[in-house]
Q: What sequence folds into this?
């Protein structure tokens, strides 16, 4: 292709864009020349702001989706842990009651009175004491433990909680240290033991929390054809044949396992103070 200068035309300059040869009048500024402006490439400020805004909205949406997913995961994990804890508490209570040991305590009243042997068991609506071969720290392998169950007020006054204390059983005198003496029960005409209050401290273990209520009852063995009888205060001079622990959650939640009422037998066939064998 021949150029413009070869044709004798002056006042124009040539430049090549792609395969074509273009001629531009040098008297026209390049930014006003449409032949050059349409080939320029760039991003306007409005386009940049729009891109940044879209990127920000997309990032916000992704972060919100991640946050919702994390919250759902934490909520499901918290419910799973609560369900496992409730199932574990029921299993622990069953094992502690299954390890019940019928022991005698030497109750030392105030004064110079001689110690009196009695079946060691305290049963009240909010308190329970007995000796068990199962402990939280050592399971079935450790020494016998004196277990003290107590229902106390929940945190911030919300509901109640069930706690347990453990201490090593060292014989009848150690169990009798919890006895304050005897008082006469006019209904039965018997002398019933009085126990020290259960003290909750830093070493107490919380078995169940955020409960609407928690109470104990005890089964009294009856001769047939009489039906079994459950009492809230155990004052008989022998051991009960069963324990019932009634619990209910403070807040109902269909997605969580509810604390169930636990009824466990106490397998004791011996009479207190009876001697067997030689």
A:
């Amino acid at each position: 292709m021949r150029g413009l200068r070869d044709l004798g035309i002056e006042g124009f300059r040539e430049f090549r864009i792609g395969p074509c040869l273009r001629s531009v009048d040098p008297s026209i500024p390049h930014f006003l020349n449409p032949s050059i402006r349409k080939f320029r490439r760039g991003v306007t400020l409005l386009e940049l702001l729009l891109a940044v805004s879209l990127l920000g909205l997309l990032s916000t949406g992704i972060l919100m989706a991640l946050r919702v997913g994390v919250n759902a995961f934490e909520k499901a994990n918290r419910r799973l842990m609560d369900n496992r804890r409730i199932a574990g508490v029921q299993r622990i209570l069953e094992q502690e009651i299954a390890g019940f040991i019928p022991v005698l305590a030497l109750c030392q009243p105030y004064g110079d009175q001689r110690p009196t042997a009695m079946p060691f068991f305290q049963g009240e609506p909010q308190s329970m004491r007995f000796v068990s071969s199962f402990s939280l720290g050592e399971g079935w392998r450790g020494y016998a433990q004196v277990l003290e169950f107590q229902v106390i007020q929940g945190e911030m006054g919300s509901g109640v909680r069930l706690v347990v204390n453990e201490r090593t059983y060292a014989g009848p005198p150690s169990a009798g240290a919890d006895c304050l003496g005897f008082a006469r029960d006019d209904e039965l005409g018997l002398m019933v033991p009085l126990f020290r209050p259960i003290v909750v401290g830093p070493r107490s273990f919380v078995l169940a929390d955020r409960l609407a209520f928690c109470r104990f009852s005890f089964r009294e063995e009856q001769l047939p054809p009489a039906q079994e009888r459950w009492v809230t205060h155990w004052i008989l001079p022998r051991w009960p044949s069963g324990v019932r622990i009634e619990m209910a959650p403070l807040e109902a939640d269909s997605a969580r396992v509810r604390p169930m009422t636990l009824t466990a037998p106490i397998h004791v066939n011996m009479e207190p103070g009876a001697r067997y064998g030689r």
About this structure: The first helix runs from residue 34 to 37. Residues 12-22 have pLDDT under 50 and may be disordered.
